[in-house]
Design goal:
With 371 residues, this protein is an alpha/beta fold. The chain folds into two domains: 139 residues, Aspartate Aminotransferase, domain 1; 212 residues, 3-Layer(aba) Sandwich (Aspartate Aminotransferase, domain 2), CATH 3.40.640.10. The protein has twelve helices and eleven strands. The protein has a seven-stranded mixed beta sheet with strand order 2-8-7-6-5-3-4, sandwiched between helices. Strand 5, helix 7 and strand 6 form a beta-alpha-beta unit.
């Protein structure tokens, strides 16, 4: 198992972090080493508070073992920990180099030889993009008027060639969710051979009585895969760790289609982060509070937005996105890219409190200029 250059650079950067800097104002990724500038990065849905103090301590202590592969026993310990957390058995857990790798593996398994995959439009593109490379047939179903997955239309799109349906919940880039009861009814309605892939990367930021994980569907009669990640609330986007929950035969197939293996930093930091309950709770509280500040200001300015359930907000700037992007760039704030056909809409990541202050100041200035 080889550590990539990216893994080593990530660990080295984390090693430089101060022990008590769990809530530093700007992540290392926001620094432009060539120009020396430090723009506020609000375009990648990263958690600006970084890894938990417990995870940082493990990363620092592990740097001297960068020459080692993670022991099989440690990978099994993480697998067992995740299984216990999800209320399932270890043979239903597959660890990946971020959930992105597992999305690619699922795209390969279901898209090769012309396999048909159904997804929302817009949605997170890693699985559809990879599936397209292996010859998949893709069907994109537009989101509804509330920018949520249109499960009725997605069900109507199912054909005898459909192998998988991808549901990102909360959805990226819209941030909206579909209720757990609606997903259950949707899965129950599908033919036996169709796999429902539920990507829950942002579920830790969601609120609502019927907004919960679909992991309880794994033990049912239909094919369901649920994906989780350490890149969001755990603040480990650079360390790369994620996992899938699936029935044992599907889990084995996913495992065989992985392109890499877990690195020692991710394996150890993930276990440490799972146990750092205080950090995770405080991180969630701060991001949700800042998210509410953003939506309050958008409402005040009369700008439409999708109901946010992730660590980002998708809103209508009222004009071509490039104008808003350039306005914010002039203020050293990087905001989201276009998501056609919503060419006037912007996805803004929730940053630290000072970063949100700067964004809201820029948003007000933008609104005043274009009234």
């Amino acid at each position: 198992m080889d550590l990539s250059r990216r893994d080593l650079l990530t660990a080295s950067a984390l090693l430089l972090a101060r022990p008590g800097a769990a809530f530093s104002a700007a992540p290392a990724s926001s620094v432009d080493p060539a120009a020396g500038a430090k723009p506020i990065v609000l375009c990648w849905n990263e958690n600006p508070y970084g890894p938990s103090p417990a995870a940082r301590a493990i990363l620092r202590s592990t740097i001297t073992e960068a020459c080692r592969y993670p022991p099989d026993a440690e990978i099994q310990q993480l697998t067992d920990t995740l299984a216990k957390r999800e209320g399932t058995t270890p043979d239903r857990i597959v660890i990946g180099t971020g959930s992105g790798e597992l999305l690619c593996a699922l795209g390969l398994l279901h898209g090769r030889n012309g396999g048909e995959i159904i997804a929302a439009a817009p949605t997170y593109s890693e699985l559809p993009d990879y599936a397209r490379h292996v010859g998949a047939t893709l069907k994109f179903v537009p989101v509804d008027k509330q920018l949520r997955h249109d499960l009725t239309a997605m069900r109507a799109a199912v054909s005898e060639r459909t192998r998988a349906i991808y549901i990102c919940n909360p959805n990226n880039p819209t941030g909206t969710t579909v209720a757990a009861s609606a997903i259950r009814a949707f899965v129950d309605s599908l033919p036996e051979g169709v796999t429902t892939i539920v990507d829950e990367a942002y579920l830790d930021f969601a609120e609502g009585a019927d907004i919960r994980s679909a992991a309880d569907l794994i033990g049912g009669g239909k094919r369901v895969v649920v994906l989780r990640t350490f890149s969001k609330i755990h603040g480990m986007a650079g360390a790369r760790c994620g996992y899938a929950i699936a029935r044992p035969d599907t889990a084995a197939d996913i495992g065989s289609a992985r392109m890499s293996s877990a690195n020692i930093f991710a394996v150890r930091a993930a276990r440490a982060s799972l146990a750092d309950h205080a950090f995770l709770a405080d991180c969630r509280r701060r991001i949700l509070a800042s998210r509410a500040r953003v939506t309050t200001e958008l409402a005040h300015l009369g700008l439409a937005y999708a109901e946010p359930q992730g660590n980002f907000v998708f809103f209508d700037t009222g004009m071509p996105l490039a104008q808003f992007t350039e306005f914010m760039r002039a203020r050293d704030i990087l905001v989201g890219r276009p998501f056609p056909p919503y060419d006037t809409w912007c996805r803004i990541t929730i940053g630290t409190e000072p970063e949100v202050d700067a964004f809201l100041e820029g948003l007000r200035a933008f609104g005043n200029r274009h009234r």
